[in-house]
Amino acid sequence: MPSDDVAERQARSLRGHVVAAARALDHAVGRQLTRVRVLVDVRTPMNAAVLRPIWATLAQDPRIELAVVAEQPPAVARVLAGHGVQCPFLRQEDATWKRWDLALTADAWNHTPLRRCRRRMQFFHGVAGKYDLDNPSRLAAAGLHRYDRVAFINADRMNRYVGSGVVSTDQAVLVGYPKLDDLVNGRWVASEVRASLGLESSRPTVLFAPTFSVAGALHRAGLEIIRTTLASGRNVVVKLHDRSLTPDAHHTAGIDWPAELAIFASHPRFALADGADVAPLLAAADVLITDHSTVGFEFALLDRPIVVYDAPDLLAAARIDADKWVLLRSMAEVVRSTSELVPAIDRAFAHPERHSAARQASRALFAWPGESTARALTVVYELLELTPPSTSVRPVSSKNDSRPH
């Protein structure tokens, strides 16, 4: 007779086969009775913006029934509506037992438990190396094994995850960062974006886009950074991270940042942006001020000047990869006080070519900039077992092909 351990393994294996067969039958019957069902599972508007090129395409495919589950439904609904997309928003408990052909997410930590989901795909939402995203051993508990495909922005991170065993070679696919395609391909005209924000369209413009953290530049000197930059005569656009928009003991120390920034609301050269996607604001900016965020690396793709407002405690507080910390500073003017800020901004405008070589070298952080949406959609349609609706969706090269175009 088999031992208890062997019997238990055999029982688990049998249960696994039974469940797999039941799910296969469930989906086979479901595909005959309904359209293909895709769930976009997002935590915040920022996550929705990361996935926007994907859901905006799927929403136009008549074969697909799109739905969304979100931690902040009204805010995420506004993101979709801004792109002409209306679809059902479900509560997590309502989505759990509904049949899905594919679930898409851009946050490995927060996801809806789905009992009847055939396939899942995970996208990363940044390259700044914060919160251990470049340390796969710390992400092992995030449950990446449950995803059929994990879409990587660059080859370095993909190789780290595959090499550590956290993601298998069958799961890993290198697609780049679809949300950047429109920025790289020149969708937005700077003067038009400035005018849409109520700013003088021809005036030089500085974007202040700090990360969320009580250790970051917003908390260290945010109001004075804005006041000082306005005094230099430039337009100032502020883009807060989602997590800085709502008072929270952990993320904002209880500070209501939109209310704090209301003191600048009447200034003709100030705009507090309320959209989820920073890309149009990057297109509108001549210079970026940040502390440590993916927006710095995104802006570098435009080869425009960056000013880093030093927030030294952020390195440990946000668990930032040391190499990424150094890399962003290598392509920027680094200031440690507001007294140094305007001279640094003046230098950036007078000599925008400074640090250009470092900015251009950083392009390797984004595989195939400008072409990533088509590559990602190829994977999505393969998982859905559907023929892509457009010839612009192209085959994906080998998972280990790291050549950025």
Biggest sheet, open or closed, and with what strands and sense?
7 strands, parallel
Compute the separation of the termini in Å. 60 Å
> What is the N-to-C succession of helices and strands?
HEHEHEHEEHEHEHHEHEHEHEHEHHEHHH
Write down the overall geometry. globular
How many β-strand stretches?
13
The CATH homologous superfamily of the largest domain is termed: CDP-glycerol glycerophosphotransferase, C-terminal domain
Total of domains: 2
Query: How big a fraction of the residues is strand?
Result: 5-15%
Cα radius of gyration in angstroms: 23 Å
- Record the strand order, biggest sheet: 3-2-1-4-5-6-7
Tally of helical runs? 17
CATH class of the largest domain: Alpha Beta
Any low-confidence stretches, pLDDT <50, length ≥5? 391-405
Share of helix among residues? 25-40%
> Under CATH, the topology of the largest domain is which?
Rossmann fold
| Subunit organisation of the chains | single chain
Overall residue-averaged pLDDT value: 90
CATH architecture field of the largest domain? 3-Layer(aba) Sandwich
Assign the structural class, choosing from mainly alpha, mainly beta, alpha/beta, alpha+beta, or little secondary structure.
alpha/beta
